[in-house]
Automatic annotation (TrEMBL):
Ranges of residues in domain Putative zinc-finger: 11-35
Transmembrane feature ranges: 86-107
UniProt KW keywords: Membrane, Transcription, Transcription regulation, Transmembrane, Transmembrane helix
Protein known as: Anti-sigma factor family protein
Length: 232
């Protein structure tokens, strides 16, 4: 018998489920090995979508027409499934577009407002939040949230870029990359974003690497320089 949650795995990884749906799915993962394996295999999707050229979304290829030989019964079954999954796939498409274009959540700077929840966050889970250590004199500060989940680890970096923190001339916008290194030495890029001078941003990310297997997390410039590090 097909699992009722079989089509929620990608939407869950990309943060496209509503809070109630996410909580229900996480409870389901505790008892379903098939969905757990599926989510684990998709955990790197946000990082991969992060590398997709925006033109792919702006100019998608036309879908090929359905063969005329398809049985009417099959067509009806497909349409029934499409209707049931419309809301989830709409949210999934929106989340994929956000990840592909690397658009973080922008917060106000210098206030005491609570962090804004972004894709991949969970109001019911315990998130370990720690400050990242600057490597040298850098114009960026950040805290990193780490959340152990069944399929790996969710990350949420909250960072502020300010050119006045250094004595060199810097551009108003700088691209940064987020990397995770495992205990056995493997390195994986899990996110990227564009920091704007004087703003604070929240950038969600995810990895299939378990929380206990993460050795460190680094923020790097596009030329490979490490600017922030967290020894996990």
């Amino acid at each position: 018998m097909s699992c009722d949650f079989a089509h929620d795995d990608a939407a869950y990884v990309l943060g496209a489920l509503s809070p109630a749906e996410r909580l229900e799915f996480e409870r389901h993962l505790e008892t379903c090995d098939a969905c757990t394996r599926s989510v684990r295999s998709l955990a790197g999707m946000p990082g991969l979508l992060d590398r997709i050229d925006a033109s792919v979304l702006e100019n998608p290829p036309d879908d090929p027409p359905l063969p005329s030989t398809l049985l009417p019964a099959l067509n009806r079954a497909v349409e029934d499934r499409r209707r049931r999954r419309t809301a989830v796939f709409a949210g999934l498409a929106a989340a994929a577009a956000v990840a592909a274009l690397a658009v973080p959540v922008v917060l106000t700077r210098g206030d005491d407002a609570p962090p804004v929840s972004g894709p991949g966050t969970s109001s019911s889970a315990v998130v370990e939040t720690r400050a990242m250590r600057p490597v040298g004199e850098v114009p960026i500060q950040a805290t990193l949230g780490l959340e152990a989940v069944t399929w790996g680890t969710r990350l949420l970096i909250t960072c502020t870029y300010d050119r006045e923190w250094v004595d060199v001339e810097l551009p108003g916008k700088v691209d940064y990359l987020l990397f995770v290194t495992t205990e056995d030495g493997r390195t994986e890029q899990v996110g990227s974003w564009r920091s704007v001078d004087g703003t604070t941003m929240e950038v969600p990310a995810a990895t299939s690497v378990g929380r206990d297997d993460i050795a460190d997390v680094e923020v790097r410039t596009t030329d490979g320089r490490v600017v922030l590090r967290l020894d996990a």
